[in-house]
Each structure stands twice: as C-alpha cells, then as structure tokens.
Amino acid sequence: MDVKIKPVTPFDGQKPGTSGLRKKTRVFMEPGYLEAFVQSIFNAIGGCEGKTLIVGGDGRFFNAEAIQTILRMAAANGAARCIVGQGGLLSTPAASNLIRQRGTDGGLILSASHNPGGIDEDFGLKYNISNGGPAPESVTAAIFDQTKTLSDYKTLEAPDLDLTALGEGKLGGMVVEIVDPVTDYAALMETLFDFDAIRALLTSGFTMKFDAMHAVTGPYAKTILEGTLGAPAGTVLNGEPSVDFGKGHPDPNPIWAKPLVDMVMAADGPDFAAASDGDGDRNMILGKGVYVTPSDSLAVLAANAHLAPGYARGLAGVARSMPTSRAADRVAEKLGIDAYETPTGWKFFGNLLDAGKATLCGEESAGTGSDHVREKDGLWAVLLWLNVLAVRKMSVAEILMDHWKTYGRDYYSRHDYEAVDAGVANAIMDDLKAIETLPEGIEKIDSFSYTDPVDGSVSENQGMRVYFDGGARAVMRLSGTGTEGATIRLYLEQYTPADGDLGIETQEALTPLVRAIDALTGLKTRSGRDGPDVMT
Ligand code: VG1
Ligand code: CO
C-alpha cells in the first residue's frame, strides 16, 4: 500500500459549529482544506487504526469527490473498514442508525443540511461518535485544536472507487463495503410504527404529499411511503436527489417549501403533507389548511407517541432546545415525566438519550427525534404523525385544536436576520447582555448556560433570554451554521391558556413582542433591515 504523507499548513477557522464544519463549497475545494479537517478529526479521535467508520452524505455538489478523499485518507490512516452508502448517499438519521446497528466506531457525514448546494453554495462535514450522535463539544474542541497545529496528512495513491455496486471491495488494506442506504433504516422504521394501520390509512382515500426537495430523502420516502405503505405513486414530490437540490433551498419551512404549503392551503389540497431537508433530519408537518409549528409538533407527538408501538411503553422524558417553545414542557408535566432544556444543536441530546432520561427530543428548527437513533429524523416524524392520525382518526387541524384546548397554545415564530455584519450582530448581543436596569414589562434577562445532567459539562453563552411580565418570552442568539456574515435568530413565544383565544394569526399574536424587542435592542435599525429575511 502506497501511503503518502503530505505537508499541509493549518487553515484558519476550521471550527465546527452547531452541526459540524460548514463553509462555502469552494473553500472546502481549496487544495488541502478538506484533507486538513479530516486528518484533524482522525487525530482527535486517537487515530483510525483498526477502526470501522460509516461514510455518506446528502449528495450535494462535491459529495462524491469528498468521499473518495475521505476513503483514501481513512485507508492510509489504518482504518479496517468503511461502510459507505451506495452512490455516496446516506441521510443523516440513516447514517446514525448504521453507526449503531453495525457497532462502528463512528462516522463522517457530508452535508450542509438545509443550506443550498452547488459550487457557489455550501458544503459541510461532521463527525459522529459511536452512539450514532454528533460529536459532543469535548470532541469538536479537540478537532478544532488539531486543525490549528496540523502539519501533514496521510493519504493513499489510489484511483477512485466505484461506489455504485453493492458489496465489498478493498482500498489498500481497508475493506470498503457499499450498502443500500435505505434498507436498514426502513427496517428500523418498521419496528417502531404500526405499518398496517398506516397502510390502511394511506389506502383509505386519505391523501398525502411528501416533498423531498430534490434532496436525500427521496429514495427513503419512495421505498417506505410508496413502496411498503402503499401510498400512490406521485405521493413523493421532488424525489430524485440532485447535486444542487434543483437550485433550491432544501429547507422544509413555509418560505422554502412554499409550493407545498400552498397546496395544503387550497380547498382541494391533500389531508396531510410533509417535507424534509437536504440531509433528511428535519421535517415540516402540514395538514389541510394548517401548518404545525415544530414546537407544537414536538408537544403533540409527546402527548400521542404512546399510540405507536415503539413508544407504547411511554416516554422517559422529553427534551427540547432552549429556543423551542415550552409547549412540550406542558405535556411532560401532565405525563409526570421530566422535561429538559438544552442548548441548540442535536449533540446536546446525546447524553440524555444514552442515559435513558429522554425518549423524545425536538428543536424549533423543524427537528424532531427519539432514542431510536442519535440524530433528529425527518421521515421518522412523518411516520409518527401518520401513526397518530391512523389511530386517532382525526384531521391534523382537529388534533392541533384538541391539543391547544387541553394545554393552551404557545404562539410561536422565529425571525431570522441573515448575513448581518458580524460586528453589528455581536454588538447587539453584547448590549443585550449588558443591560442592567430592566425596562418596564420585562421580568428577567439572562444568558443561557447549560450544565449537562449526565457528565456535568458546562456550555455557556447559548443565547439571551428575555422574559416578559405575563409569561411571554423572546430569545436571541447567533446562528452557528451560516457561511456568510452573521445570522441573528429571534425566537418569539406568547402563551395563551386553554380557555383563551386560540385562533389568532401567529404573527399578529406576536406583534407586541416584536415591538418590545426592537425597542430593547434596536434590532431593525442597527441591522439596517425593515424586518426579518425569513419567518418560520
Ligand atoms: C440550526 C438550527 C438548530 C439545528 C442546526 C442543525 O442551527 O437552529 O436547531 O440543530 O441548525 O440542523 P443554528 O446554529 O444555525 O441556529 V441541520 O438540519 O442544519 O443539521
Ligand atoms: Co439537516
């Protein structure tokens, strides 16, 4: 085997963010850039000698080339085996599942998730540990440390491998096993849900659409929904993965998945619709005439999960990221189970899931998941919703109203100010932190700090929380997944009890909060914007 040691000068800024390293594709394509980051991962995990790794990605531009580079480097670093999704494809939850099912040491997932793909768009890479979850902060910090001092990387002089044929091949001393990306994941779903009940629903005249947004879930959704569950052909929209996601944003929210939203809002629209993102870990849930906010979706699923076989035993606890609305906490309280509030990013749920403290987890950013893997899981959320709909025999709108009439409603929206000058964004955050005298109507302002209840690790500065008199809350934090300037995220939440007005239009219900935050921070003036770029 012809191992080459190649010198490399450290690159600035290879610091993993909320979910791995995300940069412009052209940055990842700079000579040595990807290699430096991959070698830093390998060094940080104590080398690759004898290890087995899962490798796959969302199929975006540069996915195929990057996988070849990673495989050569894994072989040169002494890995025993790499298990790769056919064609280089693996959804993030499917990769997490394979890491667990195959008992591997970890995996490398190539994705920039919901960010657009293409040579002038975004690329990303993250490392997941042996529990199947994103590397925790201790590991990402070690990776970042390595990137600062790296002097060389190891690779192999070898031609590209054919990733299209299933089965085993060799790259130097390393076995490369190409697996179908869907099979194991689909089998896992079948253990969790009542497929017979869902099949009966989907063949009863109930109509649904699933928008794969030209991203990785197309093959998964076609196999499971149209194949196993008998939904008619054409249920899955935009089901062919493409390197640039059909030039769209593969982001399942009312802005980027507007055609789907328009469809369910029409009188002749489907009973149920859903979408997933670039790498298949996010979900958007819609019913005829309604959009279910991700925070509400988590709460509804927590209240109804026991209706699916995989959760019939009940839930151990529910965890949500801090900016996610407190709707799930109300369900946990009623169920008499623990509710956890973690920083943004799925890596913070890993310990709670491993320790059996939480069964369901969710984020306001369209991420929902459970202890079946260690990532959020878009199709899983869709199947759980379908299972609940099949059992309760109610529409999505009825289930939502019934939920609010039981628990009250947390009006909720996130406002994003994208590509803001980083200096301005940081100053807005710093000034908010420095406020000493609370203006009238504000009860408390604090900076969220999290102590992991399992390993005691502390994560500080995870976002500013503003609590208003009367129970409303606003959260402000800077995005850790962007690739241009800073994105300010403003999360707004107003609770109305079960006997209050449950039918107000969301943005209208939140207008007073928006005004109060603007008065407090000068957000619009200072960012030079009339309003947010995106509201979800
Ligand atoms: C965003 C979301 C966060 C999510 C993360 C990764 O992070 O807010 O909830 O975990 O993306 O999701 P940030 O730091 O930009 O707010 V994905 O589907 O992009 O891997
Ligand atoms: Co994603």
Task: Outline the structure in words.
The chain is an alpha/beta fold and 536 residues long. 33% of the residues lie in helices and 25% in strands. It contains 17 helices and 26 strands. The strands form 6 sheets. It has a 7-stranded mixed beta sheet, sandwiched between helices. It has a 6-stranded antiparallel beta sheet with strand order 20-23-24-25-19-26. Strands 11-10-12-13-14 form a 5-stranded mixed beta sheet, sandwiched between helices. Helix 2 crosses helix 3. The chain is globular and about 70 Å long. 53% of the residues are buried. The mean pLDDT is 96. Residues 92, 113-114, 277-279, 281-282 line the site of cobalt (II) ion (CO).
CATH superfamily of the largest domain: Alpha-D-Glucose-1,6-Bisphosphate, subunit A, domain 3
Q: What is the typical, i.e. mean, pLDDT? A: 96
The Rg value, from CA coordinates, equals 23 Å
CATH topology tier name of the largest domain: Alpha-D-Glucose-1,6-Bisphosphate, Chain A, domain 3
Q: Which architecture of the largest domain per CATH? A: 3-Layer(aba) Sandwich
Please identify the structural class as seen in this structure. Answer: alpha/beta
Number of individual domains: 3
